[in-house]
Specification:
alpha+beta; Alpha-Beta Plaits; ten-stranded mixed sheet; six-stranded antiparallel sheet; 12 helices; globular
């Protein structure tokens, strides 16, 4: 059996989770997932301002805090915290090890090769158009606006790093599932073409990739019965050599591991349930069998899979324009009518200024912002409504002007404004997402694994 514990489910997740996973009971690996599509573009912007940046800075102080425990207990770490600067992240971890007096006792595996930003022109020139998967447009249409471009790598470089003796594996854009799949394959020595085993490890990684979302957090069915969420137990996979595994958590922690909690995580980000595609293979989610095997223990088995595809997904982010969002809260009586009137006034003023907005979007929070028309008619005595209005434009100047038009409504619009604070809305750059596919043979030769030693 090999035990892989989830330590982070996204960049900004609960900082106590990795500490409690390491110290709360026996585990073999700590998996820490930081990356989403938008995260890569944020990191690329940070790196453009500071070449030393571009990775999840939260990761390093967490590692410094738990490195002595990891060394003492023989726990290894896999993480995609490297973002667009995995070398910088790996070197920062080594420096943290030195500060803790762990020279010679910590080896960091560095996985690179996912970042193809510098290769885009060459790839396009050699006949790889990197068409948008949703629109079919070629990347050349927006080439000068691209901020980041990263291919999704799978488990192979993680397995290689672990075989090379790495205690901590730092990667860039490796799939969330690969962070769990790699340790399982390394421990059991499975063939990477045993597709059912690949599918089983993929499902295990998918279940714990979002942290406590599989162990009681964000649970829709039965959320009132979930106890102890001030101290949530993050999920742990206990994987067996036959491809089955148990999802559990440390004893004495809050939350719950149940068939409903695992099921809700399984359907997260799911497309075709028969074809969950990763760089390592395809998992058929319709074959998954779940059984409650004790308190906070769910057994997962029966998973079938298929061969990997010849393509890899590429996550590309590009600059699209500017946006700003402002809010005002209107109080009872007639709160909804006041908010609607204020929206009408503001839109008329913006129209009179002749500003070229690509989109103006209004939401009435407390009335229909979440469910839209499904919300039905608002209660006539609704106590308060937040008017939230956002604009988007290709140029910055119209958005700047919009930010100066919100505050005047306090005294030149409907009555009973409250909750206005913080000054003018901030103008933000819009980063758009461009998903593409590429022949995997263009990426795999570029993967490099290095073992760095403190």
């Amino acid at each position: 059996m090999v035990r892989i514990a989830a330590g982070q489910g996204f960049w900004g997740d609960w900082p106590e989770a990795p500490v409690r996973q390491v110290r709360g009971g026996p585990i073999d690996y700590l998996m820490m997932d930081y990356l989403a599509e938008v995260t890569m573009s944020i990191m690329q912007k940070q790196k453009s301002r500071d070449p030393r940046a571009g990775y999840a800075r939260d990761f390093v102080p967490l590692m410094e805090r738990i490195l002595p425990d990891l060394v003492e207990r023989g726990i290894k770490v896999t993480s995609n915290a490297g973002g667009v600067n995995p070398r910088g992240c790996a070197e920062a971890v080594l420096e943290a090890a030195r500060r803790r007096g762990l020279q010679g006792r910590v080896k960091v595996g560095l996985v690179s090769g996912d970042d193809i930003l510098g290769r885009l022109d060459e790839l396009i020139g050699r006949g790889h158009p990197l068409n948008d998967m949703e629109t079919g447009r070629p990347l050349s249409d927006i080439r000068d606006q691209v901020l980041s471009a990263n291919a999704y790598l799978g488990m192979a470089p993680i397995v290689e790093a672990l075989r090379g003796g790495a205690d901590v594996v730092v990667t860039g854009r490796v799939t969330d599932t690969g962070l769990t799949l790699g340790p399982i394959f390394h421990e059991f020595g499975w063939s990477p073409e045993d597709w059912d085993k690949v599918a089983a490890g993929t499902v295990a990684g998918h279940i714990i990739e979002c942290g406590a979302q599989a162990s009681g957090g964000n649970l829709l069915r039965g959320w009132r019965a979930v106890k102890g969420m001030a101290n949530p137990g993050f999920p742990i996979v206990e994987a067996a050599a036959d491809g089955s595994f148990i999802v559990t958590k440390h004893p004495g922690t809050g939350g719950v591991v149940s068939v409903p909690s695992v099921t809700e995580q399984l359907v997260y980000e799911m497309g075709d349930p028969r074809s969950y595609i990763t760089p390592d293979g395809i998992a058929d989610f319709t074959t998954i069998r779940l059984r409650q095997a004790g308190r906070d223990r769910v057994r997962v088995s029966g998973i079938r899979g298929g061969p990997r595809t010849p393509l890899l997904k590429v996550s590309i982010a590009y600059f699209y324009g500017y946006k700003a969002v402002g809010t005002l809260v209107y109080a009872w009586p007639e709160a909804y009518d006041k908010a609607r009137a204020a929206d009408k006034v503001l839109r008329q003023r913006l129209a009179d200024l002749g500003l070229g907005f690509e989109q103006i979007l209004t939401e009435f929070v407390g009335v229909d912002a979440t469910h839209g028309r499904l919300s039905g008619p608002p209660h006539p005595d609704i106590p308060e409504v937040q008017l939230r209005i956002g604009v988007r434009a290709r140029e910055r100047e119209p958005v700047e002007r919009f930010t100066r038009e919100i505050a005047p409504l306090v005294l030149t619009g409907p009555p009973s404004v409250t909750g206005f604070a913080g000054g003018r809305p901030a103008v933000e750059e819009v980063v758009a997402y461009w998903p593409a596919l590429i022949d995997r043979r263009e990426i795999e030769p570029g993967v490099r694994v290095e073992i760095l030693e403190a």
